[in-house]
Amino acid sequence: MNLTVPAAGAIIALVITTLFVVHPSPYLMALFVFVAQPLFLIGALLYVGRVFRELHAKDIL
Amino acid sequence: MLPFAVPSIESVVKALGVILGILGILLCLRILRVRPPDLTSARLIRLGIVTVPSAAFFKLLAFAALILIPAAAVAVANYHVFEGVENVEGCASCHVMHPMVNDMHDAGSNTLAARHYRRRWIADRQCYQCHTDYGLSGTLNAKMEGYRHLARYVTRTYPEPIRLRGHYLNQNCLKCHKATAGFENVQSHHTVWDRLSTNQMTCLNCHGLAHPSPGDRTPGSREYARLMRAPE
């Protein structure tokens, strides 16, 4: 289960989110809303996809 | 009486956000260092009183780093998106809103917003109290509109002076003024009630401007520099 892409995306999203929480401003809010949140979602979907593929390969699903 | 000062919700949000952010980044960095043999080896990892196979441990780690912590971080950060914007400071963080905030704080201004502020008719969150149906602090439709505002603000694709999109609903005024003696004792309110309650005429028709005029907020106007300075 290679999770390099989801983990790298989550790191970028977490950095943006942390900066926004510490210093809320319109530009950081836009980065959080339009970049960080979609990155979190894509990362989570990739992770869930990998889990399902692995379970399918093991004939569990 | 508590022996310690209760922290404000903003402080709690900030602290939680930082903790989640740092924890999430550390877990993701650990996941980046996972090698395929880690997921197939029979090595056991001790976690306090529990012992788990290394493959299961890294999968749990991935679940926490990619699902649990991001979900918590998004929930915490969205406090600023939906709650923080209810404060006047939240509105004033966009410079196009400076004229409205400066005018509201201006003791010499005669606009409706300034009069409400000066006489303490609205104690706090003054912008939000009159604009509950507008922007990120409003209804679901208003939140979608708020995202559009945000996108246009950061991409600077908006014309000055900014204008209210759609119509200002009288219900925002009437929720406080209706049924008060001050409102009911004015005969003209009863005369035009049908039109007022259906938004066919606006309260501003008789009560003047709510904020500085679009002319004063136009770049190059005599008032523009004064209105656009950063609010104190």
In short:
The complex is a heterodimer of chains A (61) and B (232). Chain A is an all-alpha fold and 61 residues long.
CA-CA gap between termini of chain B: 34 Å
Q: Summarize the biggest pleated sheet of chain B.
A: 2 strands, antiparallel
Averaged pLDDT of chain B, please?
88
Mean pLDDT, all residues of chain A: 92
Structural class of chain A: mainly alpha
Q: How many beta-strand runs of chain A?
A: 0
The largest β sheet of chain A comes out as: none
Counted by DSSP, the helix tally of chain B is: 14
Tell the overall outline of chain A.
Answer: elongated
Q: Major sheet of chain B: order of its strands?
A: 1-2
What is the helical fraction of chain B, as a range of percent?
A: 55-70%
Q: Provide the gyration radius of chain B in Å.
A: 26 Å
Q: Tell me the fraction of residues in β-strands of chain B, as a range.
A: under 5%
Number of separate domains of chain A: 1
What's the helix-strand series of chain B?
A: HHEEHHHHHHHHHHHH
Distance between the ends of chain A:
17 Å
Which range does the strand content of chain A fall in? under 5%
Largest interface: A-B, 33 and 40 residues
Q: pLDDT under 50 segments of chain B (min length 5)?
A: none
